[in-house]
Amino acid sequence: MSKNLLEQLRSMTVVVADTGDIQQIEKFKPQDATTNPSLITAAAQMPEYQGIVDDTLAQAQKDAGAGATQATIVKMAFERLAVAFGLKILQIIPGRVSTEVDARLSYDTEATVNTAREIIKQYEEKGVSRERVLIKIASTWEGIKAAEILEKEGIHCNLTLLFGLHQAIACAEAGTTLISPFVGRILDWYKKDTGKDSYPAAEDPGVLSVTTIYNYYKKFGYKTEVMGASFRNLGEITELAGCDLLTISPKFLAELQDTIGELPRKLDANKAEAMDIEKISMDKATFEKMHAEDKMAFDKLDEGIKGFTKALEDLEKLLAERLANLDGEAKVA
């Protein structure tokens, strides 16, 4: 009897859950889990996770001390909430969780490094080894340079919002642990740019981009892992079977689990090693030139940072409202 697609995918690729919903992680039991500001903001609004939010706010209020302003308490809680979700997730999964640096720091190397160190400190204070945490950083030149510093300190990084080969090469040369090229967002851009409604899975621009990056890494022996992310359809996932990791939403995890059929391996390190691929020497000037020439990568990186920034601002508002409610409940009591 044929196995379902999820079982077969797991035999050749590490499956990661792309969600902040702890119940979904318990259901699908992935190796790793990754979150982002949008996912944390969505999870924080679910009634079943109100306890995590309230506990984080209460602890921040206590630590801030008497007389602390609402803004101070919210800032402290905001900085801890992603870690609070990460700690819950790590109780379920055997592997690593990705926790994101504030997207508003994407062009500030020093601030990114300092924030990443603080996130790791919070995990370690709760008894979690840094080996089980990936710090998510946007793939700007400044973010990649921050990751280079952090990796030398044993702080492992997941470079996100990655759309172009130039970003991937810079990440590999910086020695980052992992990259997350965004398959579906690349498809979105091409559909809008060309006016085409759809692409066959094997010709999907996002699939082709990740395939190119994967083959480049394997050809030149880079240790940085490739984790395809942000999928719009099942075909994008099956066309990347064999990729180091794939981070998949609960919706597509369920679809893979419910589909019986053969899943052939599409990406193969041994085949990539034999390919004729030109090596590109990467420095800041080359990165900036290639980034300016790649309109899709330029547009999607900028859009992604703005989108994550808005999610963070929404989360701050949510925390401020919840803190006001908690204070009101305390006065009534």
TrEMBL record:
**Catalytic center at which residues?**
K136 (schiff-base intermediate with substrate)
User: What is its EC class?
Assistant: transferase
Family assignment?
A: Belongs to the transaldolase family. Type 1 subfamily.
Coiled-coil stretches are none
The EC code for this enzyme is: 2.2.1.2
Q: What is the organism of origin for this protein?
A: Plectonema cf. radiosum LEGE 06105
Q: In which pathway does it act?
A: Carbohydrate degradation; pentose phosphate pathway; D-glyceraldehyde 3-phosphate and beta-D-fructose 6-phosphate from D-ribose 5-phosphate and D-xylulose 5-phosphate (non-oxidative stage): step 2/3
Q: Which GO terms describe its cellular component?
A: cytoplasm
Q: Which domain of life is it from?
A: Bacteria
Q: Which UniProt keywords apply?
A: Cytoplasm, Pentose shunt, Schiff base, Transferase
Stated name of the protein: Transaldolase
Instruction: Relate the protein's function as given in its record.
Output: Transaldolase is important for the balance of metabolites in the pentose-phosphate pathway.
